[in-house]
Amino acid sequence: MKLDIELPPAPSAAGSYQLAKRHKDLVFLSGHGPIEGGNLITGKVGADLTLEQGVHAAHVTGLNLLATLKAEFDDLENVVSVLKLLGMVNVAPGFDQIPAVINGCSDLFVEVFGHKIGRHARSAVGMAELPFGMAVEIEAVVAVR
Amino acid sequence: MKLDIELPPAPSAAGSYQLAKRHKDLVFLSGHGPIEGGNLITGKVGADLTLEQGVHAAHVTGLNLLATLKAEFDDLENVVSVLKLLGMVNVAPGFDQIPAVINGCSDLFVEVFGHKIGRHARSAVGMAELPFGMAVEIEAVVAVR
Amino acid sequence: MKLDIELPPAPSAAGSYQLAKRHKDLVFLSGHGPIEGGNLITGKVGADLTLEQGVHAAHVTGLNLLATLKAEFDDLENVVSVLKLLGMVNVAPGFDQIPAVINGCSDLFVEVFGHKIGRHARSAVGMAELPFGMAVEIEAVVAVR
What we know:
Three copies of one chain form a homotrimer.
Chain A: E1 20-23, E2 26-32, E3 35-36, E4 39-40, H1 51-73, E5 79-90, H2 98-118, E6 121-127, E7 136-144
Parallel strand pairs in A: 5-6
Antiparallel strand pairs in A: 1-2, 2-7, 3-4, 5-7
């Protein structure tokens, strides 16, 4: 576990919603994007971005999700289980190495929370377009203390 | 709060499913579309429809979701929290103002339920195709009394 | 009910995730694909595959979801309610008979579990690309004993 990982500033919502909403011990995290150094990583994976750049974008998106969790729940130690990710990749036509891209986020969560808490169910899919041309968008459901 | 809002007739399912399924206090609402005056608003936002027409389609989809909630739970007062939306826009290539479109539904929910209950987590994404060419499809998870 | 249905071997994950994660009585099932006789059914519905072949792919995906449930929870009798499906079809441009495709899975769940347990909320949408070119990907949320 690596709960002391250095995180970017928590992002802000891009519309009339909030980044996380809790009900009892379940937390629904909004779709987050790859904000790095204040800039959004944009482009279609398989054309504008390579597979490796896509993996990096998913890793960065994971850091943003963790930043929201830390901001909302004070401490990542309050996360009891990462239940489910929906990992959406902005794909060029014909790009289907989508699971490899989303591993950039999934691997981070296992590294940070350990296998038992961090390993999750997941879907990984290829989107026609994502907001503002972002390369990856990932939402999550987690359980908290 | 505006729980007495006038709603369209509750829609019917377009396949072998039901519009809502409850488990304890959680309700999963199926993907709903923009049915207005008995007709489905179709077309790709950014080509067949303008941004403004897309926002309207998302607003209308929100009214349909509310109509299902009211039909299932008798009274919108039984909604305790809108937890999560997945807002899917039928996009023309290159259209990425997706959050602005889905605000048409999110703003409605805040107007109807107030900020505390109505404001939610959300993902907004651009789809290659939606059923019957509908412009917007939105699903939701809500908590009820 | 047809809980003794013959199922394919449980699939394995295509990345850094697991096929199902449980929290209390909720189970999140990862996006599954149409593996039949050890091979993945690939192609875009509406071009490479007909509607009928798409329906079959969704049925096969449903069998894979059931195989995971049986492997994880020992017996399909432990499923108390199928709550929600997200059915994603790898579509050719202009193909919008998406609900008919996903009925291939929804009908199977009603056949296996009966109406009360098996009938669910659902979204059915058309994707730009799916992992490895698979024709259909379906994820689910179920409640278990």
